[in-house]
């Protein structure tokens, strides 16, 4: 229940934050305060909004008005959400192009939509089965089996060395080692499936020639739950880094075109990332509703490239072939961008 309440709080917070970022004018007016001086900059008013600073002529100092601001920010989003989301799903290229061309009042800005989708995504992911379910599993028994199987393996390896030293055949011991290896792999896989992380004993046995990677593995081995919690919290706060990280890759696809600017690419990237987060939200809700994994998997594989193709063609006016090769390039660059983002997050975690 706690995670569900946290999720609802995140959604409300995201709506309020995005509303604050996106709105152009501070509130509504009834027309009764269109004369006099602006309370913000003292400019003489000639209408419902100050022509100098944009503040509404009408301001309130009532608790009811404060509550209205909260409800308006959470549930209304100035009505533009109902214009923006359907176009983001069905006609992403047209939405991106129209926003770039200056149609701003009708649509939610890319930054506001991205901010709201970040809150919404992490909030929705809190619904459904949580780590509390895993706590009910018999972890002690599983760890005991892993330890016993590892001890058996050491005994078998010692027996094999002794047979080799005596010049005797090792076929029987080799067969037992093969069975032991399969059993150990099965138990370790079960532990990873239950807890989402390898055991400390497993990680302690891993050592690479890359010292930063060894530090990460050591942190993971110390407290896997805390490590992944910090990783998720950092992703929640710094997901916006994906926008500047992806910009150089998008620029490369249109480096020879003089009619597009980095601003266009930033709008494209931000709307695209918002669409991908919306897809994650929908798929997670469908999985909770019992949709088969096959449908979930194929949707995750096929829909993002199709959406990228539609958005590329509508935004930049490229040909079908131009859209196809750019989709392939975007998919590769998305993987590289995600890897860079993950490395930055890990680096920030290690710095603290």
Automatic annotation (TrEMBL):
Transmembrane regions: 107-128, 238-256, 268-289, 324-346
Pfam family membership, one: DUF3667
Name of the molecule in the record: DUF3667 domain-containing protein
Keyword Transmembrane helix: yes
Keyword set includes Transmembrane: yes
Superkingdom to which the source organism belongs: Bacteria
Organism name: Asticcacaulis currens
Record keywords: Membrane, Transmembrane, Transmembrane helix
């Amino acid at each position: 229940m706690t995670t569900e309440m946290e999720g609802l709080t995140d959604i409300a917070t995201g709506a309020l934050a995005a509303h604050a970022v996106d709105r152009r004018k501070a509130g509504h007016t009834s027309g009764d305060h269109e004369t006099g001086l602006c309370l913000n900059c003292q400019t003489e008013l000639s209408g419902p909004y100050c022509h100098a600073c944009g503040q509404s002529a009408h301001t309130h100092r009532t608790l009811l008005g404060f509550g209205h601001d909260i409800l308006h920010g959470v549930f209304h989003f100035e009505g533009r959400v109902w214009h923006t989301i359907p176009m983001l799903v069905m006609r992403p290229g047209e939405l991106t192009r129209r926003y770039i061309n200056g149609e701003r009042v009708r649509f939610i800005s890319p930054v506001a939509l991205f901010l709201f989708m970040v809150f919404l995504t992490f909030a929705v992911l809190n619904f459904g089965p949580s780590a509390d379910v895993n706590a009910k599993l018999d972890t002690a028994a599983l760890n005991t089996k892993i330890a016993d199987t590892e001890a058996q393996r050491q005994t078998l390896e010692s027996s094999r060395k002794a047979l080799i030293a005596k010049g005797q055949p090792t076929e029987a011991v080799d067969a037992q080692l093969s069975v032991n290896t399969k059993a150990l792999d099965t138990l370790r896989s079960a532990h990873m499936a239950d807890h989402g992380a390898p055991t400390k004993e497993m990680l302690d046995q891993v050592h690479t020639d890359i010292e930063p990677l060894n530090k990460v593995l050591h942190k993971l081995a110390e407290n896997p739950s805390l490590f992944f919690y910090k990783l998720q919290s950092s992703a929640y706060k710094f997901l916006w880094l994906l926008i500047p990280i992806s910009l150089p890759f998008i620029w490369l696809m249109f480096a020879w075109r003089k009619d597009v600017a980095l601003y266009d690419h930033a709008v494209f990237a931000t709307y695209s990332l918002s669409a991908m987060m919306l897809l994650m939200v929908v798929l997670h809700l469908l999985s909770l509703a019992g949709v088969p994994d096959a449908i979930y998997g194929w949707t995750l594989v096929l829909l993002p490239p199709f959406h990228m193709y539609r958005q590329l063609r509508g935004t930049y006016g490229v040909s079908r072939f131009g859209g196809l090769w750019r989709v392939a390039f975007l998919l590769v660059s998305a993987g590289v961008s995600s890897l860079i983002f993950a490395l930055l997050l890990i680096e920030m975690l290690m710095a603290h």
